[in-house]
Design brief:
46% helix; 229 residues; alpha/beta; three-stranded mixed sheet; 19% strand; five-stranded mixed sheet; 8 helices
Length: 229
């Protein structure tokens, strides 16, 4: 089975029983060349890049600069679908501007850690899951070396809290898998952010049972279907 995105796992959760069986069969047959891409073809790439850059630089002017650039692209495009895509990216940036990014970053100097492509997959009960956070960084508090990460997610209708929690849960396990030999994973700053609905879930909320991640039960369901076929 090739790498599966968390978005695909959330979509699987929403399917009928018959559709779930078909989906697992599709995953089993998928070749490497058909594995999900994480590059610039993303419909939401403009707003994702703008928000990610603001998080990294703390420069709020980037929002308006990106909106202005997208407005120019709309004026210069003759393709209606392209114009709609640019406008939807503008709409998300505009609505997200009120989200306080300081809530999801520690009050400390952040050191960006290089994301190694070979470490971008988490094996969960035999299912390879693609993990692609926007930022992984280290910081120190009271001389304790910690690691945090943020994953900005865009989906047309957005996600519920419990669905968004699956991204956070996978992200936390990914950090523990690859970095816990050098750093303590910060539960408060291991965060997934739904940029469409402008809400977030950090791992401390999962640990305290404020929100529930269904990732384990869904992966077990996928494996159960695999064994039957």
């Amino acid at each position: 089975m090739e790498n599966i995105r968390v978005k695909e796992i959330v979509a699987f959760k929403r399917k009928s029983e018959k559709a779930k069986i078909s989906q697992v069969e599709s995953w089993k047959k998928r070749k490497s060349s058909n594995s999900p891409k994480t590059g610039g073809g993303n419909y939401w790439i403009s707003c994702l890049m703008a928000i990610s850059t603001v998080f990294k630089t703390n420069d709020l002017d980037i929002y308006d600069e990106r909106i202005s650039r997208l407005e120019d692209m709309i004026r210069n495009s003759e393709i209606e679908n392209t114009k709609k895509r640019f406008q939807k990216n503008i709409d998300i940036i505009t609505s997200f501007k009120d989200f306080d990014l300081q809530e999801i970053r520690p009050n400390a100097k952040l050191k960006t850690l290089h994301k190694v492509k070979s470490k971008s997959v988490l094996d969960l009960y035999g299912v390879p899951i693609q993990v692609n956070p926007n930022h992984v960084y280290s910081f120190s508090i009271d001389n304790e070396k910690k690691i945090g990460a943020v994953w900005f997610i865009a989906q047309k209708e957005g996600y519920s809290e419990n669905e968004l929690a699956m991204f956070t849960d996978i992200l936390y396990r990914y950090l523990n898998d690859h970095y816990n030999d050098k750093y303590e994973v910060s539960k408060s700053f291991c965060v997934a952010v739904d940029i469409v609905k402008a809400h977030k879930v950090d791992y401390s909320e999962i640990e305290s049972k404020k929100v529930t991640s269904l990732i384990d039960s869904i992966i077990k369901e996928i494996n159960s279907i695999k064994k039957k076929k």
